[in-house]
Structures are given as C-alpha cells and as structure tokens.
Amino acid sequence: MESLTSRMQGVQSPIIPVVGELIKNSPGTISLGQGVVHYNPPPETIEFLPKFFADSANNLYKSVEGIPPLLTALAGKLQAFNGIEINGEKCIVVTAGSNMGFMNAILAITNPGDEIILNTPYYFNHEMAIAIAGCRAVLVATDENYQLRPEAITQAITPKTRAIVTISPNNPTGVVYSEAALRQVNQICDTNGIYHISDEAYEYFTYNGVKHVSPGAFGSSKYTISLFSLSKAYGFASWRIGYMVIPKHLFVAIKKVQDTILICPPVISQYAALGALQAKEEYLQNNIGAISQVRQLVLDSLNRLEGLCSITPANGAFYFFLKVNTQMDAFELVKRLIQEYKIAVIPGTTFGMDDGCYLRVAYGALQKETAKEGIERLVQGLETIIRS
C-alpha cells in the first residue's frame, strides 16, 4: 500500500517515547528525562470521587468549558495566587491538560500560514502544535542566561504574527522570567494587537525566594491567554486536567475547538481536580520542599562538571539545561549515556537548540536517594565520554 502523506510529516516526533524505548532496552536505567513529579495527588482527590458516582447524570456530557463547581474553585485560586480576577472581560476554560489549552489557543487565533513567536529553547509540544495548525514558528533566541530579549522579539514581529509565547518558570531551562520582561511582552502584544500566550504549568515551582508572576494579572492583559496545569504541582499527570484563562472575545472560538476535539473534559477528572484544590497548603509546601532538596543535590553534583558543561542558574520548574562542551551530536550523547551508564536525559535539539550540544536534566520525578544515584551516573558518564 502506498504510504500517505500529510501535514504530520513536517512535525517532529515526540522525544519522550523515543527516549522511553531506549530506556526499555537498557534495564536499570534511571530517568532524568520526563518532566513529572514523584509524588501522588493529595488524598482529597480520592475523597471527592464518591460525589461523582453519587449522581448518575455525571455519565452524560457536561459543559464544554468545565463543571461550575470547578470553575468557581479555579476562579478563587486565580484570584488568591495569581492576582487574576475572573470578570466580564476574562473567563476560564477547563482543558484536558495545558497542552490542549495551547492547541485550543493556536487554532482559535490563527489561519494557516500565520506566525507564532517562540523563544528558544522552546517547549517541543508548542512547536509541534504550531506546525500541526499549518502555522510557522518564528524562533527568537534568549540571552546567555536564557532570559527574554524583548527588543529581539519586537524585531521578529511581521504582519503575519498572531502571538508571542512565554513559559515561566521555564521548560526546558528552569529559569524564571522577570516581571519587567513579562510586562514588556504584554505591552508589545497590546501595541501590536497580538496575543501573549503565557504557559504557567510550573507556577508553584520556584526557589531561593523567587516569586511567580502571572501576566494575566497585569493591567494590559486584554490580549493575554494564560495556561495552567494540575499535572505538575498536584501529581495529576494522567488525570489530564489543565485550564486556560482567556479574553471573553475568544470564548466562542475556543468552545468550537474544544467541542470538536473533546466535547468536555473528563468529568471524573474534574471532580478529582475539585478535590485536589481543597488540599492543605502543607501538601504543596512539603512536596515542593522535597523537590527543592533534590534540586540542590543535583546542582552540587553538576557543578563538578565545570569546564565540561555550562550550567545556567535556574530558580524554577525542575530542570537544568546543560551546554556540553563537545562536538558530539546531542542525541548520540543521550544514547551513549543510556547504553553505557544507564542514565537518561533529553537532547537539546528537541527544544530547538541545534547550535551545540545541550541536555535537559529533569529532577522532579526522583526521590533523594534515586536522584543521588542518577546524577552520579550522569556526572561520571559525561566526564568519561567527553574526555575520551
């Protein structure tokens, strides 16, 4: 049978399953690859599930934008934590994860051939969504510390530009963008009548006194689309619940996309999310505190690679992004680390970094002892491979 061609041929393959296959073929490998946390959802998640089963009508389709109790709870969280007020100008749409929120946004605001500005290194699923929509990702390099360059972003705008994407705290670098820079992006979008898509999936993961800032809370936010997720902070990866805060004028377009792809977010997962949001503050404090300890352990070990790698300071998410001083292809290095040292990381090429050898190190999925063993393998592997 003749192979079919489609727009998907121009879309990169998701890296996580590719690395996952390498890990499967090398038993005993410790993964510093996938961006997940090691802990489970709070017990309140399970406690709310009987409420779902108690009403047989919950087996039917529900509102495209989410069930009212969850929308109310999210509005309260947004006001308290993000400083975003849900009023006549903004509304919430619950999604099946924040990746879906991004896809919703791109399909709602673009036509094929339009442009979306991504800051490099970018999150690979963002670039993939843009390609799937028949649009073009315009790449703007961040500075030497992976911080935004608003002047360069401005210069990249053309009549086809529809949005600028920021991720803070950042995947894959772990850096947190300054409030001043995010305000500049909002102002650039306001001036040019384009959207600021702000991905805030890692909003709770900040360290050393650094605070998360939500562009949707700024006065100039009528062009701001904010994306959030329960996957990270609440250990909710497989429950698939995220949400977006959008300007009211996009509500009909977003509903068209979501109704076509999903109809409504899984209602049982929405009840679980409603439960998770009732968790005590200690749940987040204790779990993110434990990740903070792992972060310091990882950083201390990586600092031994001085001269072999450049490690940019990062006060957010649960990633470090290494520039390795080698001419070796990043994916070849990843394969050797898995096959020879049983440690997995993600190559920087999948994040749009092909001007050198970069690796993303994710430390959220491991508890202290496993992380210690994993990072020792990584340091030893890099020292041996790069010096050989």
Element pattern in H and E? HEHHHEHEHEHEHEEEHHHEEHEEEH
Q: Ranges with pLDDT <50 over ≥5 residues? A: none
Strand neighbour order, sheet with most strands: 2-8-7-6-5-3-4
Oligomer: single chain
Distance between the termini: 47 Å
Largest sheet: 7 strands, mixed
The coarse silhouette is globular
Helix content: 25-40%
Overall strand count: 13
Q: Which class of secondary structure composition applies to the elements?
A: alpha/beta
Mean pLDDT: 96
Q: What is the tally of helical segments?
A: 13
Cα Rg: 21 Å
Structural commentary:
With 388 residues, the protein is of the alpha/beta class. It is built from 13 helices and 13 strands. The chain has helices spanning 15-24, 43-47, 49-53, 68-82, 98-109, 124-132, 150-156, 179-192, 251-261, 267-276, 281-302, 330-341, 368-387; strands at residues 30-31, 90-95, 115-120, 136-141, 161-167, 195-199, 224-229, 242-247, 309-311, 319-324, 343-344, 346-347, 357-362. It has a seven-stranded mixed β-sheet, sandwiched between helices. It has a four-stranded antiparallel β-sheet with strand order 9-10-13-12. The chain has a two-stranded parallel sheet with strand order 1-11. α5 (98-109) packs parallel to α6 (124-132), α5 (98-109) packs across α9 (251-261) and α11 (281-302) runs parallel beside α13. The termini are far apart. The model has no long low-confidence stretch (mean pLDDT 96).
